[in-house]
Predict the 3D structure of the following.
Amino acid sequence: MQAAPPGPSPHATDQLLRLRDRVSSMTVSTVDSAAIATRPPMRLVGASEARSVIRVLIAEGQALVRAGVRVLLEAQENIEVVGEAATGEDAVALARRLCPDVVLIDALLPGLDSVEATGRMFAERSVAVMLLTASENEQRIVPALRAGARGLLVKDTEPAELLRAVEILARGDALLSPSLTRRLIAELAARPEPLCPDPELVEDLTAREREVVGLVALGFSNSDIAQRLVITGATAKAHVSRAMLKLDARTRAQLVVFAYESGLALPRAAARQCR
């Protein structure tokens, strides 16, 4: 028999109580699991807005935390929680069956390791995975990005930031919280030398593409890159896309890791900029 996951820490409980206070005035409908599994993959809300609903799967070992996140998400008109998973194995199986747009996965999810689960979900259908961690010192940051995670967020964040992160991932972009970006930079900065797996990959990039990859690693969006390099947004996007194709990076987050490991981005310079 599998041991029950540990209960939430006092700090986590305090976070959940604050979350409950923020969303207590919201109206939330209760839906049983059978109905969730049979919902159509997409629907539109609002006669004039015609926005697509974002389907979210929550993978979290602690029932109290899952409930708090669900309350927050289901209070939004454009977000639908299609399922919940308490283990890594369940997360992979539900992602395969329910086809969510975004998966929120706890870094310490019981059962199958969260990094392994992320890799399997991403390999099967390139689902947008957001790794949620209780600490910015979490050792799974870099492995999760390599496995295909498109976002990293510390649990001790404002509810509005989590909602924003879900929308960002759903539209195909990546998001790393500032504290985790600093942690990533610090870890890579501690390495004595860049670790480029294949120098020929870097040589295949044009000078402009190398510059763009370096800016992506500093957290620049396509519009930020366009403004910095005085080019159009479409041109910036094209440079990023070509660089990802040449480097076989399937997510923007993987491009960030490659930039630091190859030396295209300088961790110490980046760390100064992020302060």
Q: What stands out?
A: The radius of gyration is 19 Å. Residues 10-176 form a domain with the Rossmann fold fold (CATH 3.40.50.2300). Residues 23-50, 268-275 have pLDDT under 50 and may be disordered.
